[in-house]
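Quarterly update, task 2.4: flavin mononucleotide-bound model.
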Amino acid sequence: MNALIIYVSIHHRNTEKVAKIMAKTLEAELTKPWEIKPEELLKYDLIGFGSGIYYWKHHRALFKLVESLPRMKGKKAFIFSTAGINIPFINHRKLRSALRKKGFEIVGEFSCRGWDTNGWLEKIGGISKEHPNEKDLENARRFAEKLKSMI
Ligand SMILES: Cc1cc2nc3c(=O)[nH]c(=O)nc-3n(C[C@H](O)[C@H](O)[C@H](O)COP(=O)(O)O)c2cc1C
């Protein structure tokens, strides 16, 4: 299986920790959305899209890339994120919809908490401190194992 993980992690590198453990498990390549050309995605069997959640959605660079893609009929994708308040039902909604519009089949979603010191939260040391922790990363590894066995 040929897997690729595209991620953005700008706040505390929280999502990068998750992306790296998934990449190791899936033997996937890791890249940023601005480092890859749309047509290059065609050669992968499975593509993961992830970032921190910034104002209730994924990073805009992921949306920019997805919008520029050709039709990806039936291509398998998964979504992941870290967020101060982990509510994937809301936080993943926009990216899920953008990927489906392009024809991706979403085969899994993963999310966990990530240390958040945005704005005034900095004054109290942030929320979801020390996340992703060992348990979160173990859950990410298990999620990737499951994907590997499915595909
Ligand atoms: C500008 C900004 C906006 C954010 N908006 C949200 C949000 O809407 N919901 C939430 O739960 N966390 C929010 N966060 C917290 C991040 O999602 C969280 O810290 C995440 O783990 C950051 O991932 P990263 O370190 O990979 O960038 C925000 C953080 C920043 C910097």
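Highlight for this quarter: The chain has a mean pLDDT of 97.
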